[in-house]
Amino acid sequence: MNWSLVVIVVLLIACGILAWRYYDLKKRLDEYARLVRVAPEKLPTDVKQIEGLSNAVASLQAAFNVERSTLNAQNERLATVLEQLTDGVIIVDANGLIQLANPAAQRLFETSSALGRSVIEVLRNHQLVEAWRRCQQTGEMQSESVELPARRQFLQVIAIPDTHASGSLLLAQDLTRVRRLETVRRDFISNISHELRTPLASLKALTETLQGGALSDPEAGPRFLGRINAEVDALTQMAQELLDLSRIESGQVELMLMPLDPKKLLNSAADRMRLQAERAGLKLRVHCAEDLQSVRVDKARLEQVLVNLIHNAVKFTKPGGEITLEAESTSGGVKFAVRDTGVGIPSESLSRIFERFYRVDRSRTGSGTGLGLSISRHIVEAHGGKIWANSREGEGSVFHFEIPSV
Ligand SMILES: Nc1ncnc2c1ncn2[C@@H]1O[C@H](COP(=O)(O)OP(=O)(O)OP(=O)(O)O)[C@@H](O)[C@H]1O
Ligand SMILES: [Mg+2]
Fold it and tell me: Which domain holds residue 244?
């Protein structure tokens, strides 16, 4: 027997078996790799001959899945926050292209598709673009506030450098409301100091004159004291009106609503003001159907509105004129009117007379602070109604207010 031949045959057989096993393993591994690529969720575990590997991959995959779902949840939370945020958030890459813009940013910059567009094109404002450029160049945070007159908007943009991606993050805030409130407050303070100065200056002048000798003058003394008294009354009324206004505006006044016949309301306001009207040489009439539906109102407050309107009508109507109080049913409730034959209101002032301290022509209104209509508007609006005026200069004015029936 040729031993060497036997050895060769055995070796050949062993090589054949090894080759076969290698081929089989490679086939399984290739198939496994294919599944990892195309269908990782269907990966078999405990694959014959590669049990160790397939089990390790399976546990790796499980850990990966847990991490991925945590990441997804975090992403979703972040997306919700960005979506709900009232401030605009924009992420810009190193080339100035927008990678992300939340809905608030799209709203603030009036664009529907900011993604992928140039930041210059979306910001559309030289100062804001410059702030972004400075941030890119210096790598430091920049802030810029601008007024956009075309949109009557006031924006503040903060550009923060994103050191990892060499881009930047832009935060945009709409400061329009805050600015408007600041202006209102400033106007209010300057108006009130102006309104206080006039009576205070005349009080000062009157007391100085009295000190200067008028006190012992039997004719001038009492006259000056009478004027001091009138000025103090005016100041007291102003303080009371301001208090009323701030209470009503801050919602501190609770309305005591009860059903009321509109005609009764007109009559009781007319009774309170009749003497004043007659003294001014004016006729005061009530013109109203008997069977009007009743309205739920706070009687004292609504009567105050009517008294304010009648008071104005008396002030701004020449002797011989007429003031008419009216009420009628409308589809939504009851509409009241105070009509006069007075000097009227220029059309450009009609929309402003309900503002605090607004007076059409200070020279023609001797007394008054310009608060009456503002208070009236607040009371009517607190009842869910609205107030407005129509007028023709020289012919008279009519003030309407409508109270809805609930
Ligand atoms: N019936 C009216 N006819 C003409 N102008 C009017 C009439 N009612 C109001 N106005 C104008 O509107 C302005 C604002 O009225 P409002 O009642 O708020 O203030 P006022 O009467 O001047 O002061 P106050 O009511 O605080 O004493 C008046 O100053 C006046 O110029
Ligand atoms: Mg008034």
Answer: 179-249
Residue 20 lies in a domain: no
1 within a domain of the structure (yes/no):
no
245, 276, 373: residue to mutate for ligand 1 pocket, most atoms within 8 A of CB: 373
Ligand found nearest the CA of 338: 1
Kindly report the pTM of this predicted structure. Answer: 0.58
Ligand 1 pocket member 305 (CB < 6 A): no
What is the rounded distance in angstroms from the CA atom of residue 129 to the CA atom of residue 152? 19
Residue 396 Cβ < 6 Å to ligand 1: no
Q: Is 49 left (phi over 0), alpha (psi -120 to 50) or beta?
A: left
Q: What is the pLDDT of residue 365?
A: 56
Closest C-alpha to 310, from 335, 334, 281, 340: 340
pLDDT at residue 105, rounded to an integer? 94
pLDDT of residue 246: 82
Place of tokens 């109604």: 385
Ranges of the chain whose pLDDT falls below 50? none
**What's the 406 CA to ligand 2 centre distance in angstroms?**
29
